[in-house]
Design goal:
Order of helices and strands: HHEHHEHEHHHEEHEE
Largest sheet: 3 strands, antiparallel
Oligomer: single chain
CATH class of the largest domain: Mainly Alpha
Radius of gyration: 30 Å
Strand content: 5-15%
CATH topology of the largest domain: Cytochrome Bc1 Complex, Chain D, domain 2
Number of helices: 9
Structural class: alpha+beta
Strand order of the largest sheet: 2-1-3
CATH superfamily of the largest domain: Cytochrome c-like domain
Distance between the termini: 74 Å
């Protein structure tokens, strides 16, 4: 018996099914897909390499021995949580009942004021994770919307030295890493965030007592050039007055090393939310002419909501 036609048909159907599975079906699934790119938005990457002038400033920072008096290690001992009501929804009675469970000491009148007041309204402050989770579990079934703020805590954060603890990721592109081990001066891990004004740092380097009256930091006047004023004063000259003013006809201008060092200090920031250190982004009140700005209490910061 001739089985040739059957073998031919079997091979033909096998090849046809393979073609449908390997060519036709993928075309149906992906043929109309829009082209994509694997390029990553650099603005969303953390950490990023410091700018060129800041990298040069790291060498100046090391040559001056700044790490002998300043650390770059923000410590964190724990975290607390705030629960904020952002939208009471439409079922006010159930929301009020849930609030009374979340805050047993509150009265019905106080709960009504929270629901009726302008949003957002703080429900719980400085509570443990369990309390925040339980509060969310009681509020969500009512249709109300609430959010939890994560607030890192610790002595360094209370001093205003940073918003979260330092991690290895913060120093990925630094070589060498200037962690330091002593704190004769304040920690500098987040100094670029809390003191973002270049002129403040230039004055502080020239004579620290200009901006911090009781500072024990030595002046670094050799980072500045004293010269005669030409036809017009240099726009980069320091604005000095009173006991710190130079003699008439002269001006103080920062050298390239001074600018590089300030660029490095301004690049020291630890305010990015990363996986290892969850937090609610905080915005500190920054002052550029008072000593309190160096050690501003954490209570002066405000927290936006983490989504």
């Amino acid at each position: 018996m001739n089985h040739g036609p059957l073998i031919f048909l079997g091979v033909f159907f096998a090849l046809t099914l393979s073609w449908f599975g390997l060519v036709f079906e993928p075309q149906l699934q992906l043929g109309n897909a829009q082209p994509t790119t694997n390029l990553v938005n650099a603005a969303q990457l953390y950490p990023q390499m410091r700018p060129g002038q800041a990298r040069q400033g790291l060498d100046v920072y090391r040559s001056l021995g700044c790490a002998a008096c300043h650390s770059q290690q923000i410590g964190q001992t724990g975290r607390t949580y705030d629960v904020t009501l952002t939208d009471p929804g439409t079922n006010r009675a159930e929301v009020i009942a849930a609030l009374l469970k979340v805050r047993p000491r509150a009265t019905a009148t106080e709960a009504e004021k929270l629901v009726a007041g302008p949003m957002p309204q703080a429900i719980l402050k400085d509570v443990a994770h369990v309390a925040a989770t339980n509060a969310m579990a009681k509020l969500e079934p009512t249709g109300a919307k609430a959010e939890v703020k994560i607030i890192p805590t610790g002595p360094d954060i209370a001093r205003g030295w940073g918003k979260r603890r330092s991690v290895a990721e913060d120093f990925l592109f630094d070589q060498p890493v200037m962690l330091g081990s002593q704190r004769i001066g304040p920690d500098l891990a987040d100094v670029g965030s809390r003191l973002p004004v270049a002129n403040w740092h230039l004055l502080h380097l020239y004579n620290p007592q200009i901006v911090v009256s009781k500072s024990v930091m030595p002046p670094y006047r050799f980072l500045f050039e004293k010269r005669k004023i030409g036809r017009e004063p240099s726009p980069d000259a320091l604005k000095l007055a009173g006991n710190f003013a130079t003699e008439p006809g002269c001006e103080i201008v920062p050298t390239d090393e001074a600018r590089q060092l300030v660029a490095y200090l301004l690049s020291l920031r630890a305010d990015t939310v990363i996986f290892e250190t969850p937090m609610t982004v905080a915005t500190a009140n920054v002052s550029t002419n008072t000593p309190a700005a160096t050690n501003a209490p954490a209570a002066q910061t405000t927290n936006s909501v983490v989504k």
